[in-house]
Structure to design on (244 residues):
């Protein structure tokens, strides 16, 4: 009887620990970045960042030399219409205004059928020129070190939030981490070191990064749309054997 009681207690504790581990191991679904969530319309994304848009609208009324301002009231966003520059480019809201990981970054919000399906974030630190002065070079080296620290913190954060990556690819100068959730939506973090700088006998790496959030279902919709448009274009532009 005593052994049975011990066994029952052991089984009970094991079950508690098992379910506790399952709860702790639960990870977040990949739904988007920051305030932008998959499925939002362009208007909803702009509304989510209305405070930022108002801030930059006021800021660039003062700095009228900012290079990409289209018109009054559009200081935060550059709008790229679908297929305007490249046939494969979807309708895009893009901004280089916001700081990510402590530095300016370029952010693209891409839409298909008026719904957000892809978010791209690009940033990095470019190596200094040897013609720069000592103080400026040291400042740039410090900026690279700060971004490197932030990228390591980002990696830990993503591991904690989304669990172990679905795939890890490494080379000497690059690492690519890919997460996927149960719905097939994905997140890719690419960290690379294209720039290397030698100064006073020391070598310094300058990191860059690329982050992509993708909604699986809407990405497939975009691929089908592009394939259909390509097929129609080929029929209009080319004539095959059947034309003779």
């Amino acid at each position: 009887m005593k052994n049975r009681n011990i066994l029952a207690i052991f089984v009970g504790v094991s079950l508690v620990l098992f379910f506790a581990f399952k709860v702790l191991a639960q990870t977040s679904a990949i739904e988007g970045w920051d305030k932008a969530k998959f499925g939002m319309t362009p208007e909803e994304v702009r509304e989510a960042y209305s405070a930022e848009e108002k801030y930059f609208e006021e800021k660039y009324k003062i700095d009228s030399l900012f290079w990409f301002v289209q018109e009054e009231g559009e200081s935060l966003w550059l709008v790229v219409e679908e297929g305007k520059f490249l046939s494969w480019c979807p309708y895009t809201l893009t901004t280089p205004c916001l700081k990510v990981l402590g530095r300016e970054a370029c952010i693209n919000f891409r839409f298909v059928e008026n719904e957000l399906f892809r978010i791209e974030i690009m940033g990095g630190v470019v190596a200094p020129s040897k013609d720069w002065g000592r103080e400026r070079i040291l400042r740039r080296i410090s900026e690279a070190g700060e971004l490197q620290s932030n990228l390591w913190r980002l990696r830990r954060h993503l591991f904690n939030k989304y669990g172990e990556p679905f795939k890890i690819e490494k080379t000497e100068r690059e690492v690519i981490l890919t997460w996927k959730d149960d719905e097939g939506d994905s997140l890719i973090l690419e960290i690379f070191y294209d720039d290397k700088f030698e100064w006073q006998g020391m070598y310094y790496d300058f990191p860059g990064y690329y982050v992509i959030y993708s909604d699986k279902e809407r990405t497939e919709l975009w691929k089908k749309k592009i394939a259909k448009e390509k097929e129609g274009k080929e029929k209009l532009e080319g004539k095959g054997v059947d034309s003779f």
Q: What stands out?
A: The radius of gyration is 24 Å. The first strand starts at residue 32 and ends at 33. Residues 30-232 form one domain. The chain has one domain: 30-232.
